[in-house]
Amino acid sequence: MAEHISENMEKVDLDGNVPKTDEKNHVGDDDDDFVDPWNVESKSAKGIDYDKLIKKFGSTKIDSELIEKMERVTGKPVHHLLKRGIFFSHREMHNILNLYEQGKPFYLYTGRGPSSTSLHMGHLIPFMFTKWLQETFDVPLVIQLTDDEKFLWKDLKLEQAKKLALENAKDIIACGFDPEKTFIFSDLDYIGQSTAFYQNMVRVQKCVTFNQARSIFGFGDSDCIGKISFPSIQAAPAFSSSFPQIFNGKKDIPCLIPCAIDQDPYFRMTRDVAPRLKYKKPALMHSTFFPALQGAQTKMNASDPNSAVFITDTNNQIKNKINKYAFSGGGMTVEEHRKNGGNCDVDIPYQYLTFFLEDDVKLAQIKEDYSSGKMLTGEIKKELITILQDLVSEHRERRTKVTDDVVKQFMTPRKLKFDY
């Protein structure tokens, strides 16, 4: 669908002409993997080949050296999502750590495209990790709700998109973010309030031709012009001048974006444009995809209630979904499983445990027992069900305390607890 564009826009000349190329923005057809901001597909039961994706996208693998440096400069152990390779790729994270060592500021930016009334477990991953980053580095955070994107791409009315954004904001706030350090905004509301944000949007728009946008994102002749201009809206929060109320008008505060790897095309474009606007390039940390219950070939679909566990699900719904829909890597019979063991590379209950079971020792024991056949499929599912029920119950309880006034506090443009 979308052709590859490098970190430098040499593949598209100043007249917008795209030289012929065999490279693609996704892992190519010969790999049977496809990744863009709207679609993730793999024919392998193990899911996407992330090493190939790093090579195709031109990012850098998060290695032990980076993890050790992060622990050294923060004086804290890294998050289990980082240690286990769930956040696996980055752009210029070493620069961010150098700034932190020097006592220089940066900020965090992440987002959510609201397409359902509730987040599912996969949506929680970037927010769990972003919360840890914010607490570890003590920095401002901006969270973009792209209700405009969902209006453009989905069969939604504008009012529906805005309502979903508010509901998702409540779920995000319930993750435990600090209102004195966090600004959440809806595109449909904030762009109309902020001339600085809109000005950065049009600056980006002027730097990117239609041919470049088509090359990066695969837009076609039948796509509405709103889709073609949308990437500039997702780029704007990566520039500190888009938030004068937070950064006192400063244009040079660097940004770190934790996100899933499918969002990288937006920020490759942003990083290409930034020097032309005399702005800092944003740094990134990429996560793998949280697999659907049915298997790792695709990411979860918020529109399919049986592809995911939602944070509004009851304990009984969680139990039934895991038992009925979670793809198993175990044997067809107890005897076969005892003999051959389970395949943790494709087993969804085990994969989910790598995201949510923080105890490294217990996770290693489960893997050993399940792989050897000592632990049965029903037993590993039971472990997961208990963890998810506890996590969702705690989140549901926190969400009941998120009133409309609390949402308004987070979503009101204002100065945060930082001086610039």
Structure description:
There is one protein chain. By secondary structure, the protein is an alpha/beta fold. It is 47% helix and 11% strand. The protein is built from 19 helices and eleven strands. The strands form three sheets. Strands 3-4-9-8-5-6-7 form a seven-stranded mixed β-sheet, sandwiched between helices. The chain has a two-stranded antiparallel sheet with strand order 1-2. α14 packs antiparallel against α18. The radius of gyration is 21 Å and the shape is globular. It starts with 32 loop residues before the first strand and ends in a 9-residue tail after the last helix. Mean pLDDT is 89; it is low at 1-30.
What distinguishing features does this structure have?
420 residues; alpha/beta; seven-stranded mixed beta sheet; two-stranded antiparallel ribbon; 19 helices; disordered N terminus
Tell me briefly what this model is.
By secondary structure, the chain is α/β, with parallel strands linked by helices.
Query: Given the C-alpha coordinates, what overall shape results?
Result: globular
Share in helix = 40-55%
Kindly estimate the percentage of residues that lie in beta strands according to DSSP: 5-15%
Rounded mean pLDDT score: 89
- Nearest-angstrom radius of gyration? 21 Å
Uncertain runs are 1-30
Structural class: alpha/beta
Query: How many strands?
Result: 11
Strand count, sense and barrel status of the largest sheet are:
7 strands, mixed
Oligomer: single chain
Quickly count the helices. Answer: 19
Main β-sheet, spatial strand arrangement: 3-4-9-8-5-6-7
Element order: H for helix, E for strand: EEHEHHEHEHEHHEHHHHHEHEEEHHHHHH
- Measured between the Cα atoms of the first and last residue, the distance is 43 Å
